[in-house]
Amino acid sequence: MHAWLCTQPTGVDALTWTELPTPAPAAGEVLIEIEAASLNFPDLLIVQNKYQIKPPLPFVPGAEFAGVVRAVGEGVKHLQAGQRVACLMGTGGFATHVVAPAWRCIALPDGFPAVDAAAFIMTYATSWHALMDRGQLKAGETVLVLGAAGGVGTAAIQIAKAAGARVIAAASSDEKCELCRQVGADAVINYSQQDLRETLKALTEGKGPDVVYDPVGGDFAEPALRSIAWRGRYLVIGFAAGPIPQLALNLPLLKGASIVGVFWGEFAKREPQANAAMMAELVRWYREGKIKPVIDATLPMAQLPQAYARMGSRAVKGKLVLVN
């Protein structure tokens, strides 16, 4: 097997395409031949030593992937050799093969392509957990999605629309705003050209959004929170812009609003039954055509450095997927 190996987390340039022994699955594990792996923002942070999870060195980055089970370890009952699966493991995906805990794998139904499957779990699970569980989104409410043209943003638009909400999508260019309309947004804000607060006020007739979905942080967090509706819910997803906002606590007080933390990975660990039910529902929605990953581009696995460069330039719309 081959894999992109990180021996020192000093950045993308430290990754090397390395031949390694193909591992055998231990008890409770499966060996997967990887067909496709998606690039997520944490995959960039983890090779820069900036992510909250710091795997022991050396490691293979690539949190999310899909492929074919080639061997099963002792005690694995729900998967078998030849079965197609998707998996989110945190590391290991940027390779030709990987050993993964069987419980982390989702068996794929017929008609679920590997490229879509590799771009599915992290973004849709995060967005569902945020909007439906933590945000308690109801039909008829208005959702503001910041960073709306990215992977989690496009997933959030689709999930919110499927739940019967009105969606205002905010992105940094007209091209990205047009993509947001194509995936279901009712209104868009180009926050590189439009004032976020004033445009939100106009689009909501002064009421503001009921739910703010924020995977970006940075400079737009405070104006979004200031614009929120009475009893609104501000969902803290992540900080793709870099800086972690310092928000004044009088702002949620004045609106009777809630600032709600969203950490899907920890939810999945602590509440596995609820997470499994959520994933089953998301797979049903995919099969019904309610949701579908937006794929920016597919690149050969050998072009991982180029994929990282595209992500770092903020040019990605939806998800980047590497294929073997």
UniProtKB/TrEMBL annotation:
- Mind telling me which InterPro entries this protein's record contains? ADH-like_C (IPR013149), ADH-like_N (IPR013154), ER (IPR020843), GroES-like_sf (IPR011032), NAD(P)-bd_dom_sf (IPR036291), Quin_OxRdtase/zeta-crystal_CS (IPR002364), Zn-ADH-like_protein (IPR051397)
Protein name, entry field: NADPH:quinone oxidoreductase family protein
What superkingdom does the record give? Bacteria
Domain Enoyl reductase (ER) intervals: 11-322
PANTHER family hit by this protein: QUINONE OXIDOREDUCTASE-LIKE PROTEIN 2 (PTHR43677:SF4), SHORT-CHAIN DEHYDROGENASE/REDUCTASE (PTHR43677)
Q: Which CDD domains match?
A: QOR1 (cd08241)
